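Run folding on both entries below.
>entry_1
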Amino acid sequence: MTEAGKTGLRALRVALWGAVLAAGLGVSWFFVAGGGAPRPPSVADQIGQGAYRLTTTSGEPFTQETLRGAPSLVFFGFTHCPDVCPTTLGDIADWQEIAGVEIRTFFITVDPERDTPEALADYVGWLPGAVGVTGTPEALAEALDAFKIIASRRPLEGGDYTMDHSAYVMLFDREGRYNRIFSYQTDSAKAAESLRRIMGG
């Protein structure tokens, strides 16, 4: 397959996962550019809530209570991700620079088999405020459900595999309440303005 074909397939996978999520939640507002539309409390209040218990790369527990105390971004990905994950982390760095703020960012792996705490710490260590998060497959399954994330393992040639997953970033306020999402490669200026507002800038 040509490089252009591969790029097209990657883009298609991102679009398909977004479509599946929107259908699953049944709310068209979920993918409004920049996440500017009001959120129905009956749906929004459930996002990020649950009995999941994961572990950060610093050895601290990551639960729904972790989201309290300060605004935060949550992104699900994996360290072997060829394009979406590194691009998204780069975008978050741009948002922070434009906004002039540092917001804590939780990068939760969807590939615990390969993403050790050491690998995660190295992967996100360059991004200000970023912390890697992992856990047992069972705990991660609970977290995927709590955050309304879709992730699945896809075999590759030669016995290797990759992970298809929802490709957006979630923003939570200082009370741990879901605020909005930023879709893949959303407008940086709009995202930065959202960060500035939620950080009180």
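>entry_2
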Amino acid sequence: MAFAPAEKDFRPSPNGHVDLNPPSRQRSLWYEIIPVDPAWLLPFHPVYRGEGIARGDGSPVMFVPGLSGSDGHMEEMHNWAIRIGYMAVRSGIIWNRDPWRHMEGMVSRLEKAVLETGQKATVAGWSLGGIYAEVVGIFRPDLVHTIITMGTDTRTNIRKDAHPAIRAFGTALIEVDKFSEEMLDALPGMPIPEGVKMYCIYGSADGAFHKEDFGDPRATENIEVSSKHGTYPWNPFVYEHVGRILAKGARNGHSTS
């Protein structure tokens, strides 16, 4: 699916998509309002009905919203995970603007779910939520076996490399203290613990980050899909990959015992 160019000096790419690597490296937020997007197809896509995806094993999965988002933004994914056989756990985030407090609540909910099921969890985060998923997976491998990021720059400090408008909005919304900045600087260099796998899904038309900001060398897979930054939680191609990754975890039987 091709996307209309929103910046100058685009070059056609071999696969027929618009080349999203302008010489300036500056992305345009106009990508986010282009009406052509796979997210419109979700209610009609077989993956939404669970077709072509292995049935889940009842293990916990948590979907974490992005900057200024809430669990409501992840509701479609949450309900879909239940339909395909997983125990979907809400992050408890009503308004995503206080990272470390949010993660304390996430960990508490994960602890309860892991204790109840006897199985470690998958944590999937959208944008800033992917950073939360990464942090929980790195510091609590006793709870998490799989990290999935969706539209998350995990290679660098996510705040510094975001589109200037997104960076300004995030800085205004979240008080960036010294600890937070040091954590964001250090996170890309932290090793993923043994027994934890990370999968990074990113969009070919993401307007918040440059395509080259994605692709983490620590990841088991880096997966490109046709998606804008604002529509990962409703993109059927994202669902296909999340379902495939969840099935891998189910086959591997990540018991806490």
